C-alpha cells in the first residue's frame, strides 16, 4: 500500500465577500491523495485555486470545510504535528526586511521549536547558495536571493513534505536550475515529498512523477505524468474530402468526427500515431483529399476539454 503524504477530502473554501465583490468559491470539494516520496505537480491556470489549496495545507488560510491530513496527522486533530510535517515556499515574497539570511533561518527554526543542536543553518545557507550573504541586510538581496531564502526557511524544521508555490514564476534560468537541482536532491537523498504548483505544462512534465490538474476550484484530471501527457498530446488533422466519403477512415487510436462543412476532424495521439498513419487511413478509406490542415490543442484547450469531459462524467 502506498503511504500518502497528504490526504484531502471534500475540501472547500469560500472567501468572504469583499467590498463590491461577491463571495468567491475558490475550492469546490477537492479529493486528492499525494503519495509519499513523489514529486507531485498541481497544474492549473491562474485563478484555478492552487495557492488557496497550498495555503490551506500550510495553515495560512482557513478552510471552509473538509478534511486535510499531512503525514497522517489530521490538521484539526493534530495541528502541531501536521504543521511540523510540512514546509512551504510561498508564491509571494513575504520576507521580513530586517533579518539577514542567517538570522532569518534561526528565527524560523525557533518558531518551529527546532533545538539549537538540531539546526542546520550553515548547511541550508550552503544549499541555497547564500553562505557569503549570510549576514547581509535583507534589503540588499536580489529578488532571486530572496526566493532562495524563502526556500531555506521552508526547510529549517526538516519537513517530510515540501511545497513550492509557483517556484519559478519570474525567476531567471540560473536560479530555476538551482532550485530544481536542490529539489531533486531533497527528493532523492532524503525522500522528501515535493509538491509544486505551476501553470506551465512543460515544467510539470519535466519535474513531476504525478500531476493533478485543477481548474475553477476542482480537480479535473489526476494521473501519472506519462499517462497525462498521453492524453494531452492529442492532435487533430482536418481533412476536406473532394466528395462526401462513403466510408470513414479507421485505425487504432483514431477518432473521426464529421463537421458541418463536411470536413473530417481526425484526432490522434502524436506519441503513438504519426501524421503519415492518419493520411494512410484516409487513403485506405478511398477518400481524395482536397485540403488538409492540423490543429493542435494548447493548454487552455486542454483545460477546457478536460473540464467538459469531467462535467459529462
Ligand atoms: P491560483 O493560485 O491557482 O492562481 P488562487 O488560489 O490564488 O489561484 O485563487 C483562486 C480564486 O480565489 C481566484 O478567483 C482568486 O481571485 C480568489 N482569491 C484568492 N485569494 C483570495 C482572497 N484572499 N480573497 C478573495 N478571493 C481570493
Ligand atoms: Mg497561485
TrEMBL record:
InterPro entries: AAA+_ATPase (IPR003593), ABC_transporter-like_ATP-bd (IPR003439), ABC_transporter-like_CS (IPR017871), ABC_transporter_ATP-binding (IPR050763), P-loop_NTPase (IPR027417). SMART domains: AAA. Keywords: ATP-binding, Nucleotide-binding, Transport. Residues 6-241 form the ABC transporter domain. The keyword ATP-binding applies. GO terms for molecular function: ATP binding; ATP hydrolysis activity. Gene3D superfamilies: P-loop containing nucleotide triphosphate hydrolases (3.40.50.300). It holds the Pfam family ABC_tran. It comes from the Bacteria. Signal peptide: none annotated. PANTHER family: ABC TRANSPORTER ATP-BINDING PROTEIN, ABC-TYPE MULTIDRUG TRANSPORT SYSTEM, ATPASE COMPONENT. This is ABC-2 type transport system ATP-binding protein. It comes from Poseidonocella sedimentorum. The lineage of its organism: Bacteria, Pseudomonadati, Pseudomonadota, Alphaproteobacteria, Rhodobacterales.
Amino acid at each position: 500500500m502506498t503511504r500518502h503524504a497528504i490526504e484531502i477530502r471534500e475540501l472547500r473554501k469560500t472567501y468572504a465577500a469583499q467590498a463590491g465583490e461577491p463571495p468567491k468559491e475558490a475550492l469546490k470539494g477537492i479529493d486528492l491523495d499525494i503519495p509519499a516520496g513523489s514529486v507531485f505537480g498541481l497544474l492549473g491556470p491562474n485563478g484555478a485555486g492552487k495557492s488557496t489549496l497550498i495555503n490551506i495545507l500550510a495553515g495560512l488560510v482557513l478552510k471552509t470545510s473538509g478534511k486535510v491530513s499531512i503525514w497522517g496527522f489530521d490538521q484539526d486533530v493534530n495541528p502541531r504535528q501536521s504543521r511540523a510535517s510540512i514546509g512551504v515556499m510561498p508564491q509571494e515574497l513575504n520576507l521580513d526586511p530586517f533579518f539577514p539570511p542567517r538570522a532569518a533561518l534561526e528565527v524560523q527554526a525557533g518558531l518551529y521549536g527546532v533545538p539549537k543542536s538540531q539546526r542546520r543553518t550553515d548547511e541550508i545557507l550552503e544549499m541555497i547558495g547564500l553562505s557569503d550573504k549570510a549576514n547581509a541586510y535583507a534589503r540588499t538581496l536580489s529578488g532571486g536571493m530572496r526566493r532562495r531564502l524563502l526556500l531555506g526557511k521552508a526547510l529549517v524544521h526538516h519537513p517530510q513534505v515540501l511545497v513550492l508555490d509557483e517556484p519559478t514564476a519570474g525567476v531567471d534560468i540560473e536560479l530555476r536550475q538551482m532550485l530544481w537541482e536542490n529539489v531533486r536532491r531533497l527528493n532523492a537523498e532524503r525522500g522528501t515529498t515535493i509538491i509544486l504548483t505551476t501553470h506551465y505544462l512543460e515544467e510539470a512534465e519535466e519535474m513531476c512523477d504525478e500531476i493533478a490538474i485543477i481548474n475553477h476550484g476542482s480537480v479535473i484530471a489526476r494521473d501519472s505524468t506519462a499517462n497525462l501527457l498521453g492524453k494531452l498530446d492529442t492532435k487533430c488533422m482536418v481533412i476536406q474530402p473532394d466528395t462526401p466519403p462513403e466510408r470513414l477512415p479507421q485505425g487504432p487510436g483514431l477518432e473521426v468526427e464529421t463537421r458541418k462543412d463536411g470536413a473530417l476532424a481526425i484526432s490522434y495521439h502524436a506519441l503513438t500515431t504519426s501524421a503519415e498513419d492518419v493520411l494512410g487511413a484516409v487513403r485506405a478509406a478511398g477518400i481524395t483529399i482536397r485540403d488538409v490542415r492540423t490543429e493542435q490543442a494548447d493548454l487552455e484547450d486542454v483545460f477546457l476539454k478536460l473540464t467538459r469531459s469531467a462535467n459529462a462524467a
